[in-house]
Amino acid sequence: MQENLKGKAPFMEQDIVLVPCNPGLSKHWFLLVVLPKEKQIFVLDSMAASFTKPTIINAVAKMWRIMQEIDNSIDANQWLFATNTPKDIPQQQNNYDCGVFLCFFARSLVLQSAVPSNSVPAFRCHMILELHEQELSNFTEPSIQANQYYAVEYDKSWYFGRALRSPDGNSFVSFKFLHSTLSNGERVFNWPRRDDIDTVHSSCVFFGPAVIVGIGPFNFPQLNEVQQVYQWLRKSRKGT
Description:
It is built from 5 helices and 11 strands. By secondary structure, the protein is an alpha+beta fold. It has 2 domains: about 1-115, 3-Layer(aba) Sandwich (Adenoviral Proteinase, Chain); about 150-240.
C-alpha cells in the first residue's frame, strides 16, 4: 500500500491526496480527501445523510491506518476529521450520478473552482472531451439558448430539438423536435408535417448546442459523438 501512495514527494509532504471510495457492495462512490500539511481528513459525499455513515467512518479509519504505516508519529488528536451534510455541497438527484459528482468534487478541489450543481449531462460530455485530449480544460455551466439545437433525452430515447426559448425559472424549456429517417443508409433529420413541440426539464439536455447542416433533410456532424454520450449514459445507469 505504501508503494501505491508514493509520489514525487513523501506522502506527508503532499498538498492534497484524493481517494475515490466505493466500499464493499454499496454501489456508491464518495471522495475521501487528505490534506497532510493542514492535518485534515474529510469526505465529500453527494448522497450525504444527517449522520456520519458507517461506510464513511470505515473509509476514514482505513485511511488513517495506512497513514500510520507511513508515519507512526502522527497523532489523531492533532487532526481534523469531517464529512459534509446534504446542505453543504450539491447533492445528486438520482441513484447513478455519484461517480460524476465525485469527479466534480475532485476537480473543484484541484482547480479551486466552484462545484457545478445542475450540469451533470454537460459535465459528462466535458469529461469525455478531457479524457480524449488527456488534459483539463475550463468548464462553465452551460445555458440553453433559444434557437440553438440540442440533444434531448426523452421517453427512453433521445431527439434533436431546437430550443424555442431559454429555460424558465424552474429550469423547464420548450423544444421543437426533429424526426429522423434513413437516407442512403445515413441517418438524417427533418421537421415533421405537424410541429412536435414539448416542454422538458433542462436536465434532459445532454449535448449541445449542436451544429445543423443542410436545408432539409438535415445532418448533424456531431451525431456519432452524441450517440456515444447517450450510450454511455445508459450504460452508467445500468451499472449502478
